[in-house]
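Key result, reporting period 2: structure in, sequence out.
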Protein backbone atom coordinates (compact mmCIF):
# COMPACT_ATOMS: atom_id res chain seq x y z
CA UNK A 1 0.00 0.00 0.00
CA UNK A 2 2.45 2.60 -1.13
CA UNK A 3 0.08 5.36 -2.19
CA UNK A 4 -1.16 8.00 0.20
CA UNK A 5 -4.80 6.98 -0.15
CA UNK A 6 -4.39 3.65 1.61
CA UNK A 7 -5.77 4.92 4.91
CA UNK A 8 -8.88 6.68 3.66
CA UNK A 9 -12.01 5.45 5.43
CA UNK A 10 -14.51 3.34 3.51
CA UNK A 11 -17.83 1.91 4.74
CA UNK A 12 -15.86 -1.16 5.87
CA UNK A 13 -12.93 0.72 7.26
CA UNK A 14 -13.17 2.61 10.56
CA UNK A 15 -12.14 6.23 10.29
CA UNK A 16 -9.49 6.50 13.01
CA UNK A 17 -9.24 10.27 12.73
CA UNK A 18 -12.99 10.77 13.18
CA UNK A 19 -12.85 8.25 16.03
CA UNK A 20 -10.23 10.28 17.88
CA UNK A 21 -12.13 13.49 17.23
CA UNK A 22 -15.10 11.84 18.96
CA UNK A 23 -13.08 10.24 21.77
CA UNK A 24 -10.89 13.23 22.55
CA UNK A 25 -12.92 14.95 25.28
CA UNK A 26 -13.90 11.81 27.20
CA UNK A 27 -10.46 10.26 26.79
CA UNK A 28 -8.94 13.38 28.31
CA UNK A 29 -11.47 13.45 31.13
CA UNK A 30 -11.91 9.75 31.91
CA UNK A 31 -8.48 8.28 31.19
CA UNK A 32 -6.61 11.36 32.34
CA UNK A 33 -3.32 10.50 30.66
CA UNK A 34 -0.74 12.28 32.83
CA UNK A 35 1.37 15.24 31.80
CA UNK A 36 3.36 15.56 35.03
CA UNK A 37 5.67 12.80 33.83
CA UNK A 38 6.10 10.73 30.71
CA UNK A 39 3.86 7.67 30.74
CA UNK A 40 4.69 4.88 28.28
CA UNK A 41 1.43 3.01 28.84
CA UNK A 42 -1.41 2.13 31.11
CA UNK A 43 -0.15 -0.08 33.97
CA UNK A 44 3.41 0.43 32.78
CA UNK A 45 6.12 2.00 34.94
CA UNK A 46 6.66 5.64 33.92
CA UNK A 47 9.82 7.15 32.46
CA UNK A 48 11.19 7.99 35.93
CA UNK A 49 11.46 4.23 36.53
CA UNK A 50 12.10 2.86 33.05
CA UNK A 51 14.69 5.50 32.08
CA UNK A 52 14.22 4.91 28.37
CA UNK A 53 15.40 8.36 27.26
CA UNK A 54 16.85 9.89 30.43
CA UNK A 55 20.39 10.01 28.98
CA UNK A 56 19.39 11.84 25.79
CA UNK A 57 16.33 13.98 26.53
CA UNK A 58 17.92 17.07 28.06
CA UNK A 59 18.29 19.68 25.34
CA UNK A 60 17.08 17.27 22.67
CA UNK A 61 15.17 18.71 19.72
CA UNK A 62 12.12 16.48 20.05
CA UNK A 63 9.29 15.48 17.73
CA UNK A 64 6.26 13.52 18.96
CA UNK A 65 4.29 11.42 16.48
CA UNK A 66 0.65 11.13 17.57
CA UNK A 67 0.94 13.79 20.25
CA UNK A 68 -2.73 13.46 21.17
CA UNK A 69 -3.80 15.98 23.80
CA UNK A 70 -0.26 17.24 24.36
CA UNK A 71 0.45 15.36 27.58
CA UNK A 72 3.60 13.73 26.20
CA UNK A 73 4.90 17.05 24.85
CA UNK A 74 4.41 18.69 28.21
CA UNK A 75 6.04 15.80 30.07
CA UNK A 76 8.99 15.89 27.63
CA UNK A 77 9.33 19.63 28.17
CA UNK A 78 9.53 18.95 31.91
CA UNK A 79 12.31 16.45 31.20
CA UNK A 80 14.29 19.15 29.37
CA UNK A 81 13.36 18.47 25.75
CA UNK A 82 13.46 21.50 23.45
CA UNK A 83 12.34 22.40 19.92
CA UNK A 84 9.09 20.55 20.52
CA UNK A 85 7.09 19.47 17.49
CA UNK A 86 3.90 17.42 17.73
CA UNK A 87 1.79 15.95 14.99
CA UNK A 88 -1.60 14.32 15.21
CA UNK A 89 -4.34 13.73 12.61
CA UNK A 90 -7.21 14.55 14.97
CA UNK A 91 -8.28 18.20 15.02
CA UNK A 92 -9.88 17.77 18.44
CA UNK A 93 -6.78 16.14 19.91
CA UNK A 94 -4.50 18.80 18.46
CA UNK A 95 -6.71 21.60 19.76
CA UNK A 96 -6.55 19.98 23.19
CA UNK A 97 -2.76 19.87 22.88
CA UNK A 98 -2.71 23.55 21.96
CA UNK A 99 -4.81 24.45 25.00
CA UNK A 100 -2.77 22.27 27.36
CA UNK A 101 0.54 23.72 26.20
CA UNK A 102 -0.73 27.31 26.16
CA UNK A 103 -2.01 26.92 29.72
CA UNK A 104 1.41 25.65 30.79
CA UNK A 105 3.16 28.41 28.82
CA UNK A 106 5.06 25.86 26.74
CA UNK A 107 5.82 26.54 23.10
CA UNK A 108 5.51 23.77 20.54
CA UNK A 109 5.07 23.48 16.81
CA UNK A 110 1.83 21.55 16.29
CA UNK A 111 1.00 19.99 12.93
CA UNK A 112 -2.34 18.54 11.93
CA UNK A 113 -1.74 15.25 10.14
CA UNK A 114 -0.73 11.68 10.62
CA UNK A 115 2.76 10.22 10.63
CA UNK A 116 3.09 10.99 6.90
CA UNK A 117 3.62 14.64 7.80
CA UNK A 118 7.02 13.66 9.14
CA UNK A 119 8.12 13.80 5.50
CA UNK A 120 7.41 17.55 5.42
CA UNK A 121 9.70 18.34 8.32
CA UNK A 122 13.34 19.16 7.67
CA UNK A 123 15.42 16.03 7.22
CA UNK A 124 17.67 15.36 10.21
CA UNK A 125 16.01 18.01 12.38
CA UNK A 126 15.35 15.82 15.43
CA UNK A 127 17.63 14.55 18.16
CA UNK A 128 14.73 12.55 19.49
CA UNK A 129 11.50 11.17 18.00
CA UNK A 130 9.01 9.89 20.58
CA UNK A 131 5.71 8.16 20.04
CA UNK A 132 3.50 6.85 22.83
CA UNK A 133 0.61 4.49 22.05
CA UNK A 134 0.01 5.89 18.57
CA UNK A 135 1.81 3.64 16.08
CA UNK A 136 -0.81 0.93 16.68
CA UNK A 137 -2.90 3.00 14.27
CA UNK A 138 -0.35 3.00 11.47
CA UNK A 139 -0.89 0.49 8.69
CA UNK A 140 2.11 1.35 6.50
CA UNK A 141 4.72 0.79 9.15
CA UNK A 142 7.74 0.68 6.85
CA UNK A 143 6.81 3.99 5.35
CA UNK A 144 6.25 5.51 8.79
CA UNK A 145 9.63 4.28 10.03
CA UNK A 146 11.36 5.70 6.94
CA UNK A 147 9.84 9.05 7.96
CA UNK A 148 11.22 8.63 11.48
CA UNK A 149 14.69 7.83 10.18
CA UNK A 150 14.58 10.81 7.83
CA UNK A 151 13.53 13.13 10.67
CA UNK A 152 16.36 11.99 12.95
CA UNK A 153 19.84 13.40 12.74
CA UNK A 154 22.59 10.77 12.61
CA UNK A 155 22.99 9.56 16.20
CA UNK A 156 19.42 10.60 17.04
CA UNK A 157 17.14 8.39 19.12
CA UNK A 158 13.71 6.90 18.39
CA UNK A 159 11.67 5.88 21.45
CA UNK A 160 8.24 4.32 21.17
CA UNK A 161 5.58 2.40 23.01
CA UNK A 162 2.52 0.52 21.86
CA UNK A 163 -0.03 -1.74 23.48
CA UNK A 164 1.53 -5.19 23.91
CA UNK A 165 -0.23 -7.79 21.73
CA UNK A 166 -0.35 -10.17 24.71
CA UNK A 167 -2.47 -7.60 26.54
CA UNK A 168 -4.75 -7.38 23.53
CA UNK A 169 -5.02 -11.16 23.31
CA UNK A 170 -5.88 -11.47 26.99
CA UNK A 171 -8.98 -9.30 27.17
CA UNK A 172 -11.85 -11.59 26.29
CA UNK A 173 -14.03 -9.15 24.45
CA UNK A 174 -14.02 -9.78 20.66
CA UNK A 175 -12.07 -9.01 18.53
CA UNK A 176 -9.52 -9.47 21.31
CA UNK A 177 -8.91 -12.56 23.41
CA UNK A 178 -7.35 -15.93 22.85
CA UNK A 179 -9.92 -16.92 20.26
CA UNK A 180 -7.87 -14.93 17.76
CA UNK A 181 -4.24 -15.49 16.99
CA UNK A 182 -1.59 -13.57 18.90
CA UNK A 183 -0.13 -12.92 15.45
CA UNK A 184 -3.24 -11.34 13.97
CA UNK A 185 -2.22 -7.73 13.57
CA UNK A 186 -5.17 -5.91 12.05
CA UNK A 187 -8.16 -5.68 14.35
CA UNK A 188 -11.20 -3.47 14.08
CA UNK A 189 -12.61 -2.76 17.48
CA UNK A 190 -14.96 -0.37 19.19
CA UNK A 191 -14.33 1.58 22.31
CA UNK A 192 -17.52 1.09 24.30
CA UNK A 193 -18.51 3.11 27.30
CA UNK A 194 -16.16 6.05 26.90
CA UNK A 195 -18.61 8.01 24.78
CA UNK A 196 -22.40 7.73 24.42
CA UNK A 197 -22.03 5.60 21.29
CA UNK A 198 -19.26 3.02 20.77
CA UNK A 199 -16.48 4.38 18.59
CA UNK A 200 -14.98 2.13 15.91
CA UNK A 201 -11.23 2.02 15.40
CA UNK A 202 -8.75 -0.01 13.36
CA UNK A 203 -5.43 -0.94 14.94
CA UNK A 204 -2.42 -3.04 14.09
CA UNK A 205 -1.05 -4.86 17.13
CA UNK A 206 2.42 -6.11 16.25
CA UNK A 207 4.62 -8.51 18.13
CA UNK A 208 8.01 -7.39 19.56
CA UNK A 209 9.78 -9.50 16.92
CA UNK A 210 7.86 -7.70 14.17
CA UNK A 211 8.89 -4.36 15.66
CA UNK A 212 12.50 -5.41 15.95
CA UNK A 213 12.61 -6.46 12.31
CA UNK A 214 10.78 -3.41 10.98
CA UNK A 215 12.86 -0.93 12.98
CA UNK A 216 16.12 -2.67 12.03
CA UNK A 217 15.13 -2.90 8.37
CA UNK A 218 14.41 0.85 8.41
CA UNK A 219 18.07 1.39 9.25
CA UNK A 220 17.93 2.02 13.00
CA UNK A 221 19.92 0.14 15.59
CA UNK A 222 17.69 -1.26 18.31
CA UNK A 223 19.20 -0.41 21.71
CA UNK A 224 16.51 -1.58 24.09
CA UNK A 225 13.25 -3.50 24.10
CA UNK A 226 11.13 -3.57 27.26
CA UNK A 227 8.11 -5.64 28.19
CA UNK A 228 7.60 -4.45 31.78
CA UNK A 229 5.61 -6.59 34.15
CA UNK A 230 2.30 -4.87 34.72
CA UNK A 231 2.22 -2.95 37.95
CA UNK A 232 -0.93 -2.06 39.82
CA UNK A 233 -3.19 0.19 37.80
CA UNK A 234 -1.82 3.69 37.83
CA UNK A 235 -3.93 5.95 40.00
CA UNK A 236 -4.87 7.86 36.85
CA UNK A 237 -6.46 4.93 35.09
CA UNK A 238 -9.71 3.05 35.59
CA UNK A 239 -10.10 -0.47 34.31
CA UNK A 240 -13.82 -0.03 34.16
CA UNK A 241 -14.05 -0.83 30.46
CA UNK A 242 -12.88 -4.41 31.05
CA UNK A 243 -14.87 -7.24 32.51
CA UNK A 244 -13.44 -8.68 35.73
CA UNK A 245 -11.96 -11.83 34.18
CA UNK A 246 -10.17 -9.90 31.45
CA UNK A 247 -8.85 -7.40 33.96
CA UNK A 248 -7.51 -10.23 36.14
CA UNK A 249 -5.76 -11.85 33.16
CA UNK A 250 -4.05 -8.58 32.39
CA UNK A 251 -2.04 -9.05 35.58
CA UNK A 252 -0.35 -11.99 33.86
CA UNK A 253 1.10 -10.33 30.78
CA UNK A 254 2.93 -7.13 29.85
CA UNK A 255 0.58 -4.32 28.93
CA UNK A 256 3.09 -2.26 27.02
CA UNK A 257 5.94 -2.79 24.59
CA UNK A 258 8.67 -0.15 24.62
CA UNK A 259 11.52 0.10 22.13
CA UNK A 260 14.44 2.48 21.78
CA UNK A 261 16.63 2.64 18.68
CA UNK A 262 19.28 4.94 17.31
CA UNK A 263 20.06 6.23 13.85
CA UNK A 264 23.66 5.20 13.18
CA UNK A 265 26.39 7.83 12.91
CA UNK A 266 26.86 11.25 14.47
CA UNK A 267 27.52 12.17 18.07
CA UNK A 268 25.92 9.94 20.67
CA UNK A 269 24.62 12.84 22.77
CA UNK A 270 22.45 15.74 21.61
CA UNK A 271 24.47 18.68 20.38
CA UNK A 272 24.88 21.37 23.05
CA UNK A 273 22.56 24.30 22.46
C1 LIG B 1 -3.92 6.71 22.52
S1 LIG B 1 -3.66 8.30 21.79
C2 LIG B 1 -1.95 8.59 22.13
C3 LIG B 1 -1.74 10.01 22.56
C4 LIG B 1 -1.02 10.12 23.88
N1 LIG B 1 0.30 9.55 23.81
C5 LIG B 1 -1.85 9.40 24.90
O1 LIG B 1 -1.55 8.26 25.20
O2 LIG B 1 -2.83 9.98 25.36
C6 LIG B 1 -3.50 7.91 20.09
C7 LIG B 1 -3.26 9.14 19.23
O3 LIG B 1 -2.71 8.70 17.98
C8 LIG B 1 -3.24 9.52 16.98
N2 LIG B 1 -3.08 8.83 15.69
C9 LIG B 1 -3.90 7.96 15.10
N3 LIG B 1 -3.40 7.56 13.92
C10 LIG B 1 -2.21 8.19 13.77
C11 LIG B 1 -1.21 8.21 12.77
N4 LIG B 1 -1.32 7.46 11.67
N5 LIG B 1 -0.14 9.01 12.92
C12 LIG B 1 0.00 9.77 14.05
N6 LIG B 1 -0.94 9.78 15.04
C13 LIG B 1 -2.01 9.01 14.91
C14 LIG B 1 -4.69 9.73 17.40
O4 LIG B 1 -5.29 10.84 16.76
C15 LIG B 1 -4.54 9.89 18.89
O5 LIG B 1 -4.41 11.24 19.27
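The corresponding designed sequence is given below.
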Amino acid sequence: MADGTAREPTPDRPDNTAAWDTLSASYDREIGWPDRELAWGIRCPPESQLQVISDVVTGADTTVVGCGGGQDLLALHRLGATGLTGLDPSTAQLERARQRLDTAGVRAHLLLGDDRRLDELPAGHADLVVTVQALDYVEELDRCLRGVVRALRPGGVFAMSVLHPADVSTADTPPFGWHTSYHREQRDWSWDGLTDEPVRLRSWFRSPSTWFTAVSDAGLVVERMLEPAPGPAEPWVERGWLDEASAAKLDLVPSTFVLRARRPGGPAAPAAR
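The domain at 16-262 is CATH 3.40.50.150 (Rossmann fold). Confidence is low (pLDDT under 50) at residues 1-6. This case is discussed further under Risks and Mitigation.
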